[in-house]
Amino acid sequence: MLLYFDKLIFYPIRRCREANRKRVPMLKLSLNPIVCDSDRAGSTLAHYDMTSPKRPDLTVGISTTYTRVSRALTSILAPSPGVEYLMVIQAPGDWEFPQELSDIANRPDVRVSIQSATGVANSRNAVIAEARGHIIWFADDDLHYDTSLFQRIITAMNKHPDCQAITFPSHNADGRPRKRFPSKFEYLTLFSAGKYATFEIAVRTDSLRQSEVRFDARFGAGAEYPFGDEYIFLADLLHLGGQIGHVPMTGACHPDVSSAFRDFSNRSETERRVFTRVFGRWIGLLVYPAFKLRKLIRKTQSALRAPHK
After folding, report:
1. Which of 59, 65, 109, 176 could form a disulfide with 131 if both were Cys (CB 3.0 to 4.6 A apart)?
2. Measured between alpha carbons, how far is 114 from 156 in angstroms, rounded to an integer?
3. Considering the entire predicted model, what is its pTM?
4. Helices marked H in the chain — which ranges?
């Protein structure tokens, strides 16, 4: 009976979304080189030729704050061919580089950008503006991974050239998947894109810049609405007709609790804002209570399946 109500609620919404998506034009990619806006990036950025064969394959974009620099430095691994590290640090104007950061910033594959703006969405947008790689992977400052992940990301992008972005699973410190992820490749929809964290997303740099899709600075850690920025980001790509593919490969380990699972005083308000931002005002107001009911249904189903003591 619970499963019946679940399908009853979401089937017409899915059909409405599928019908609308057929009328959305696909992203048109231009071959013109992109000139980055250094003011939006929050630091001085030299112009470079986006068509140069010397561009890295992958930019690992690490977002952090000045209070977490020591921790973030552990995310910079040994040099890897075709990979650059771009660390965006949000810091006050009078902050000075610690020596350990100065030492690693001297590496040719490492760049550091200081940003006065706050909020992780602004930091991710600085990564988009300043990345030199053909692909961007949005990393956090507390992830555990090795350099083999870089090649998996590059290989997955090459295997799915129709995708402007890919997503992939991460796991917790105990090795369990962070969420219930698909076991095979599939294209994302507005209903499946909401489960991914930013560090489970990689994008094509040029395609993303030309689409003008950016992270909404009103959402995410450090903003008025403290989560949902990555869902809105993926939804905006989908609204433009972009393809996003889930790739069932091994991602990074994220030992800490994601911001979406923390206890916020404005959680319900943030959830409502996210859904109306993704679906529009009226459909969003319909989808949000359906989403809450679905969570309750699944929680009840899990409790019913659990062995009784």
Report:
1. 59
2. 31
3. 0.81
4. 2-21, 38-41, 69-72, 99-105, 120-130, 148-159, 205-211, 229-239, 267-279, 281-305
